[in-house]
């Protein structure tokens, strides 16, 4: 009897050790996926650091120049509307550095930030490679375009934030004064953090359809619920637009709100597609 207990204990111990080893194997695999992602991001960051002069002048400082694409397009729209208020001859951005190592750390931090942004699709792909083996064949097919769509929406959001929200916000905030006696001198860190926050926050917000897809697959969200709560969603979207854009003018809020409304409607379509797939699977199981 005691021998049987010992045998059972040994078997139980071996099973627990196998499960433990399996868990650590998964952790080790995830670590290597993250290591490869980190190496890719570091390589991109080094490339950005090497060519930083051109990137700083063209990309980072772009929204502070009147020759920026957005300002030129606004000027053309103003000409079409016969309104002179849409053209800007000068953007009042006077930047300063207040720390001894400020410009050096600025180059490192902004290079890393750009590296993370450009390396985001590869990071998603590595995470997808880690999750993929745990999914069933049908789940793999259903989520096969995850990396592409998530990367596309993020890139679209980043471009929208960079070309629309950032220049409009910079133009407003740089020219805003409460008194003529106060001169606006902006710290370079403040300028870059503003551009980065507006750009990356918009990229994150544009992932809304992906979030809706995940919640719909989990059964937390349905197209019916989204349609019935559309009026509340409109209020939430307006609040998000107000938070994302530091400018109080209605034009900027409207420009930001419109894509979010479109994304919400796209999310309803996505949720409806997920529901149809679930019904189709249920019918297949019944058969």
UniProtKB/TrEMBL annotation:
Similarity comment: family membership: Belongs to the TatC family.
InterPro entries in UniProt: TatC
Top-level taxon in the UniProt lineage: Bacteria
Naturally occurring in which organism (per UniProt): Mucilaginibacter jinjuensis
Protein name in UniProt: Sec-independent protein translocase protein TatC
Keyword Membrane recorded: yes
Function comment: Part of the twin-arginine translocation (Tat) system that transports large folded proteins containing a characteristic twin-arginine motif in their signal peptide across membranes.
Subunit text: Forms a complex with TatA.
One Pfam family from the record: TatC
This protein's UniProt keywords: Cell membrane, Membrane, Protein transport, Translocation, Transmembrane, Transmembrane helix, Transport
TM stretches of this protein: 34-52, 104-125, 146-165, 191-220, 232-248, 254-274
């Amino acid at each position: 009897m005691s021998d049987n207990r010992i045998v059972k204990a040994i078997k139980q111990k071996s099973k627990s050790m196998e499960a433990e080893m399996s868990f650590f194997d998964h952790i080790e695999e995830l670590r290597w996926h993250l290591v490869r992602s980190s190496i890719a991001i570091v390589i991109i960051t080094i490339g950005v650091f090497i060519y930083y002069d051109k990137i700083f002048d063209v990309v980072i400082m772009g929204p502070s120049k009147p020759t920026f694409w957005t300002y030129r397009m606004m000027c053309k729209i103003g000409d079409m509307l016969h309104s002179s208020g849409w053209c800007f001859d000068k953007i009042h951005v006077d930047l300063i550095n207040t720390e001894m190592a400020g410009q050096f750390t600025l180059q490192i931090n902004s290079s890393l930030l750009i590296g993370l942004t450009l390396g985001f699709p590869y990071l998603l792909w590595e995470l997808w490679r880690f999750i993929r083996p745990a999914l069933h064949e049908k789940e793999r097919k259903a989520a096969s375009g995850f990396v592409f769509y998530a990367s596309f929406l993020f890139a679209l959001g980043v471009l929208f934030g960079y070309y629309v929200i950032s220049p409009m916000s910079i133009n407003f905030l740089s020219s805003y004064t409460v008194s003529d006696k106060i001169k606006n001198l902006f710290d370079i860190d403040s300028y870059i953090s503003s551009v980065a926050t507006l750009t990356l926050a918009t990229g994150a917000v544009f992932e809304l359809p992906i979030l809706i897809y995940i919640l719909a697959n989990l059964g937390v969200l349905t197209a019916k619920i989204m349609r019935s709560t559309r009026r509340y969603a409109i209020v939430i979207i307006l609040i998000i637009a107000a938070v994302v854009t530091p400018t109080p003018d209605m034009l900027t809020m409207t420009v930001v709100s419109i894509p979010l409304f479109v994304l919400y409607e796209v999310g309803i379509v996505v949720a409806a597609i997920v529901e149809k797939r679930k019904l189709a699977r249920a019918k297949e199981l019944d058969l």
